[in-house]
Amino acid sequence: MTRRVAFVVTLLLISSSLSAQRAITRTIYVNAVDGSGAPVLNLTAEDFQVFEDGAKRPVTFAALGSAPMRIVLMVDSSTAMSKMINQLKNALTAFADALPETEEVVLISSGGQIRVRTQAGAGRERLRAEIGRFAVEGGANAFYDTMLEADKRFMKPAPHQWPAFVVITTDNGEANREINVDEYNRFMNDFLARGGTAHGVILQGKSSGLVSDILANLVDNTGGMRATLLADSSLPQRLADIANRLADDHQKMMRRYSVTYAGDPNILRPTINVTVSRDDVELQMSTRRPF
Q1: Which domains does the chain have, with CATH numbers?
Q2: What does the buried/exposed string (b/e) look like for 11-36 if buried means 16 or more CB atoms within 10 Å of the residue's CB?
Q3: pLDDT tens digits for range 96-146
Q4: Residue 247 in contact with residue 105, Cβ under 8 Å?
Q5: Positive or negative CA dihedral for 229, 234, 236, 239?
Q6: Strand partners, 260
């Protein structure tokens, strides 16, 4: 007997809806177990059927979540970070030490403009070497532009890996430019639809500003860890905690399926029915990772 589960997608829209003209790829996450409760780990895309508001949609991809995470470690290297550089290096090292070496890390800094310090394929030895060389570059914090560019260059080209931002930033009210709200909403809705996750630590300056607001929105909408610190002494532990959270979350998802299908962009909150073509399989689903 085929088991069917219906649920409602509730993407978290910030302040504007998706354009009716945008094509959309939607992903749902599925836990499949047999009648005894044991995980079913050999399903393929051909085994899944997805119905969106009653209409059958093409399933374009389905696989267990065992691929390495694609983590963008985004670090403020603006002038405001200069007094905290030694503790920052300690924290980045703690992150590298705690994170399993199977996960991919792209180290990026945002002082003045984006600077890519390690590529996704670089190993931990290269990452640790770049952490040791990390230095302040000066200027304002190009946080927003760096975030969008990093997503475009490193996350979108790896659609079958779990995208995750880990952000360490100061916020003294400085930023390179004003934020286009519609542009940000498009990014956020798309990042959520791809199952992205974000974690962040803000080293608070004399006054909070736009960087704090954007990072809080990004982290909170994706269910990540967020901390605002008045001093940098606890930063290494915070980064180690985030690394451990990433590892734990990925472990949970390694026995869950990512099922991607071509959705109707005109439907913002579709009701989705998912079935499998095999008998005695029960499904549990979520639009968010982990679950």
Answers
A1: 4-66+256-286 (no CATH), 70-251 (3.40.50.410)
A2: beeeeeebeeeeebebbbbbbbbeee
A3: 999 999 999 999 999 888 999 999 989 999 999 999 999 999 888 899 999
A4: no
A5: negative
A6: 27, 61
Whole-angstrom distance, CA of residue 252 vs CA of residue 43: 18
User: How many beta carbons lie within 10 A of that of residue 63, not counting itself?
Assistant: 14
How many CA atoms are closer than 13 Å to the CA of 262, on its beta-carbon side?
Answer: 6
**Cβ(26)–Cβ(263) below 8 Å:** yes
CA 159, CA 44: separation in Å to the nearest integer? Answer: 17
Distance CA 75, CA 185 (A): 23
Amino acid at 155: M
Distance (Å, rounded) from C-alpha 33 to C-alpha 280? 8
Instruction: Extract the tokens encoding 238.
Output: 């915070």
Q: 3-class SS at 271?
A: strand
Cβ atoms < 10 Å from Cβ of 234:
15
**Dist. CA 272–CA 8, nearest whole Å:** 6
Q: What are phi and psi of 172, to 5 degrees?
A: -115, 25
Given a contact cutoff of 8 angstroms between Cβ atoms, the answer to whether 258 and 29 are in contact is yes
Per-residue pLDDT of 198-252, as tens digits, reads 999 999 876 667 889 999 999 999 999 999 998 899 999 999 999 999 999 999 9
In whole angstroms, what is the distance from residue 286 CA to residue 76 CA?
Answer: 33
Please provide residue 259's backbone torsions phi and psi, each rounded to the nearest 5 degrees: -120, 115
